[in-house]
Every structure is written in C-alpha cells, then in structure tokens.
Amino acid sequence: MSAKDIIKASLLAHLPEGAIRQLVEEGDEDKLYDAISDIVAEGYTVVNNLGYVRDPDNVADLEALEREYGFISDPNLTEEERRKRIKALKYARAGSGTAETMQNALHLAGFTNLVVVEGRQTLDPDSVIYSEAEYVVNGFEYFLISGYDIGCNETVTTPVNDYDYGCNETVPGGALPNIYNFGCLSLGAVRQSVIWDPTTHWHLVFYVAEEITVDGTGLITSITPATIDRYYRKFIREIILRLKPLHTWGSLNIAWSDPAGYGFGYFPFGITPHGL
Amino acid sequence: MSIPTAQECVDSAIAALESNLLQDVPLYEKSFLRVLAVVLGMNNAELYRFGVKRSKMVLALTASGDDLTILGREYGIVRKPAVKALLQATWGTAAAVTLPKTTVWKSEDNGMYYFQLQDYTFPAGGSYIIQVRAEFPGPDGELENGSFLVTGSPPPNSGPAPTALTSGIVERGADEETDEELRLRILDEIQTVGGGSNLADYRTWAQRTPNVLRADPYTGTAPAVAGDPWNDSIPGERTVFIESTTTYHPDGLADGALLALATDYINYDQETGERQPCLGSTDDTLYVVSIYRTPVTFRVHGLDVDAASILACQADITEAIDTFVRSMRPFILGLDVEVFRNDTLTVTSVSRVVQRVVQAYGGSVGLVEFIISGGATSTSYPMAPGERLKAIVEYVS
C-alpha cells in the first residue's frame, strides 16, 4: 500500500458514517481527498526516509553518509560503487590480525596473487627474502636493500633514481616528489641494518609475497616475490596497516613494476583500502 | 539533500489539487483550495525541515547532546562522565580522635566543599593523611599543595587545628566529555575496523581514558630527539602518543599520572578487568608518551584595515590561526581517513585562513609566512608522529 493510499484511507476513516455521507468514487469530493493525500504523502516520504539515513543501500543523502564513514565523494564512481564501499566498511567484521585475515582482504581488493605467511621463531630470512623487500610499519618506513644485514642507517633525502623508495619518490613521467600520494612522512625512509636477535624478533614478522614455501616444521624455505604495479604500493600498504597487529612488522616481497596504462587512483572493483 | 522552499511546497500542493480536480472547480472553491494548498504546503515545508534536523541527529558528524550520546552507545562508545577531584590532605591532632565520614571540609581558595570517603580514627599526636572528594566535578576541584581545608565541625577533642593542608591529588577532576570530544571517538569507531590489536584497537582503548582527547598509535620506538627517524625500532615495540583534553592541560600535554592511567586502559578492559588481547606482547615494549608542541611563529605582513578595527582584526586573525593550527594532527596511514587529513602546514593554507578574516573587515594583507621553532621561514611543514603545533602570531607593518 502506497503512502497516498494509507493517508487517504486514514482520511476516509474519519468521515461520518451513513447514507447521507456516501462518497462517490471519482466524484469531486473523492478527487479532493486524492489531492490532499498526494500532498500529505510528500511529508510522509520525508519522515519515511529518516529510517534510512544510516542505510547504505537506501539512504537518500548518500554524500552525508559518505562523509560519516570518512569517504570523499568520488565523481568517478557510480552510485552503486559508492554505496558498496560504505557497506564494505560498515559491515566489516572485526579482524583477527592473522595472516589469513590480511590475505583475504588483499584478495578481496583484487590482489589475488599475494599470500601472507606468519614467520617462525628461528627464521633467518637472509637466504630466502626478496632482495628489495620493504617493511610495512606505520609512522616510518623501513627497507631492506639486500637481505637483513645490509643497510647504513641513512636517511634517504635524494632519490637515486626515479623509482627509488622513500619520501622523495618520484613517479614516472613526473619529477615532483609525491609525498602525499604515497603516504610517506617527510622524515624520509630509513635504510636500516637489522640487528635483531633472530630468535627473539623474527616471529613478529609476517611475509607477503606471491609464493612462500615452508618445510615440515613450518620454517619458510623460499619466497617468490610478486610483481605488482607500483601505483598500488600505497593501497597494499594501507590494507596491511589497517589489519596487522600493532606490534608486528610486515615484510613486503613485491617487485614494483611500471604503471600499466591507467592513472593513479584506479582501484579494482571501486573498493578502497579504507573499506577493507 | 535538497530541501524545497516553503513556496515550492505550496506550489507542489496547488499542482496536486489542480491535477486531481482537473481545474474544473468554480471560482469560490478555487479560493478555498488555494488556502488549503497553502496550509498543507506550509505543513510539508515544516516537516521537511524537521526531517532534515532529525536526520542530522542520527549522523555522528552532525548530532549533538543526548542524540550524540545515544548514537555513541550504539557503537559501544559511552560519554566519559564528569569526575570529582580526589585530594589527600594532612591533618594533625593532639588527642586521639575519630573524624567521622560526615565531616565536611571547605576550601577558601575555590569556595568548594570537600567530603571524606570514610571514617578516620587516629591515635594521639602526629599528622595523618585523609582523602577528600570535591563537591563538584571538573578541574576546579583540584587544589595546589598546601591549600587550607577548614571544617566547621571539628571533633570535640581534636585540639586547636580544624584545618588540614592539601598534600596531593589522588585523582584529577574532569568535566563531562564534550560533544566534540565524544564525536571524535564515535567517528573513529565508525570509520575504522578494530580487531587483532590493530591500530584502531589501540586508539579506541587509549581514548577511553578520562581526560584523553586523542591517541596516536605507532609501531616502533619514538626517537630520543623528536622528529628524528625511528631508526632503533624493532618488532614488538609500540608507541602511543597521548593528547590530553585542554581542560587537563592547555596544550594537550599528558603528565605521568595520565600516561600511567592510559597505559592501564590500553592493557586492561576497564569493564571486565580482563587484559586486552595483545597477542602475547608485554609491557616492556609498550611506550605511552605525551604529544609535544612545536612553536610556530606566523608573521603577517602589511595588514591593512580600518584603523579603528585593526586591533579587533588582529585578535581575530590570531584566534583563527590558533584554531586552525590546533586542528592539525599527524596523519596515520592505515588508521586515519583522507577526507579529514590535515597534517601539513603550508603558506597557502594559513594564508587562506588569514584572508577570510581580513575580507570580513574589508581590508587586505601583504604576505603571511611562518617559521618553525626559531629556524628559517618555511613554505611547507609536514607534522611528525606525536607532534602538535602551537601558534605565535606577529604583525609586521
């Protein structure tokens, strides 16, 4: 029953009963009640919409709900995609911080060629880790240049080349630092010689790569780095940072490749890491 | 959401009447229908306004008062209650005496009454510690050490000293959490997904602490020198920067007592007493530290407004810059959302703030520049973890 029908029924229910007050269908009085019902139905719709203010599927003021959930209204997204990304965040279940949780989120975002494996206590990754693996932590950025024992504590202030990592990173085709887009800090990335005690700290590191093999005792025996467009670097880091336990470090074994023809900002399925 | 004007609502009502009645009504009835349309149209206009107002009250960004409290509860965020300060005071007695729980103390400093939490029984001679709770919540109930508390009803054998001297604050007073503080926590909850002791979890736990406004969690160890790279970090370490409410400290700094309390809130669920699921971590690698404020000197050159209003204009500019700078916070990738990102101070952004004020006075300004901590002028300054800015505004003719 439409809002108009409900209101008209309500009006008619208040009329006096009896033959003297017989309403002629399609008569002037009936039409008048139709008109009044139409007008009141407008207000009914306003009140009815209040029930959907926080409902991503039905909200009338989609932009307000986007802001509530921290999204920028992106004109490149369809309305369905905009509703979808709010739902992805609103109905996300609390993560468990496990490798499986992170891997599922990466797959959901379209990075189906990545696996996540938790480290084992006595793993010395020098022989298996990707030579340009980087660590995913927030507030600062660590990069292993070659294995775990090379580094010089230097702060990268000048990029060695266009694809050098760090806050002075430049993107192909442009010479400007891209601090904002890559989510770095001005402090610069730090190339750090790792001096951890392997038995104490390596179990707090998890590994992200295309393929990771483990032996019968659970120790990692090989890591095959994934190759992914460098424009996704920030997105992948953000997904991991959102989900990982604060005290752990992620070792990202990814060879960043040149862009594949689309611009920065493109994201598979219209879902951003914020919604994962 | 577009809200139709009252006229549009009336026009819509007229259209509905005319289309239903096919405009074939006699003139006098038409007049009646006009009046009916206006009444119903205005009613709809009011309903639209009411609807929009109510819809704002179910969004954390725009809700206020009780509506915001109810919204917060839905997400498990409870408005922090006001806290009455708990003080300790030293009281000397010559004779053995019992101070009953009903003994009321008064401070001449703030005019507030203080109440004992229990009976005290002391032997003859010596000084003893009592604890008293302030009459009203908030920081006003706190007293400097050595302040006098006087009781109008000293025990009959207590000797000549109906006064006690305050000797410490056991629990600081706090006002009820404001709408803006509560809104921040609700939005954090809405815009992030916690679980597994991730970034969002640490922020949520720390921000439940009374008098904590903002918590910024990071992996690793903060460097000894603020702003330096985090070179010495190793896995397992976590640093949580704490910003207090401005009623606790005007610059939002956290003292040892607040940091200890925040550490407790991070480690333990205060409702159940259970330890938070930190996946085997220990306190040895949890560093809860205060935010720090970096002074920034803003120089406004060539301010040209009417002479009669220049002082008022300068005051407004100073306030606007201060408000703008205090709203800035470091951006944490993986936790904060881009739409609210405001972590880089630029000449452009601060100039815009100044221009808005100057335009309101019908004047102009030559140049706005800023200097970080007594260094050279900068055009852009990204904030480091744990950093907040503090504005000092100078006017150069």
Short description:
With 276 residues, chain A is α/β, with parallel strands linked by helices. Helices cover 29% and strands 13% of the residues of chain A. Chain B is of the alpha+beta class and 397 residues long.
Number of discrete helical segments of chain B: 8
Q: Note poorly predicted spans of chain A.
A: 143-195, 261-276
| Total strand segments of chain A | 10
Structural class of chain A: alpha/beta
Largest sheet of chain B: 6 strands, antiparallel, barrel
- Write down the overall mean pLDDT of chain B: 88
Low-confidence runs of chain B: none
Number of helices of chain A: 8
**Number of DSSP strand runs of chain B:** 17
- Residues in helices of chain B, as a percent range: 25-40%
> Gap between N and C termini of chain A, in Å?
39 Å
Task: Determine Rg of chain A (CA atoms, Å).
Answer: 29 Å
User: H/E element string of chain A?
Assistant: HHHHHEEEHEHEEEEHEE
What do you see in this structure?
The complex is a heterodimer of chains A (276) and B (397). With 276 residues, chain A is an alpha/beta fold. Helices cover 29% and strands 13% of the residues of chain A. The relative contact order of chain A is 0.14. In chain B, α1 packs across α2, α5 packs across α6 and α7 runs antiparallel to α8. At the A-B interface, α2, α3 and α8 of A face α1, α2, α4, α5 and β9 of B.
List keywords for this structure.
heterodimer, A: 276 residues, alpha/beta, 10 strands, 29% helix, disordered C terminus, B: 397 residues, GMP Synthetase, Chain A, domain 3, 4 domains, 6-stranded antiparallel barrel, 8 helices
Topology:
The complex is a heterodimer of chains A (276) and B (397).
Chain A: H1 3-13, H2 28-49, H3 62-68, H4 79-90, H5 99-108, E1 115-118, E2 134-136, E3 142-143, H6 179-182, E4 190-191, H7 198-201, E5 205-209, E6 211-214, E7 220-224, E8 226-229, H8 233-243, E9 249-252, E10 254-257
Parallel strand pairs in A: 3-4, 5-9, 8-10
Antiparallel strand pairs in A: 1-5, 2-3, 2-9, 6-7
Helix pairs in contact in A: 1-2, 5-8
Chain B: H1 6-21, H2 27-56, H3 65-74, E1 84-92, E2 97-99, E3 104-107, E4 113-116, E5 120-122, E6 127-137, E7 148-151, E8 163-171, H4 179-191, H5 199-207, E9 212-219, E10 238-244, H6 256-267, E11 286-290, E12 292-301, H7 310-326, E13 344-346, H8 347-360, E14 367-372, E15 377-378, E16 380-382, E17 387-396
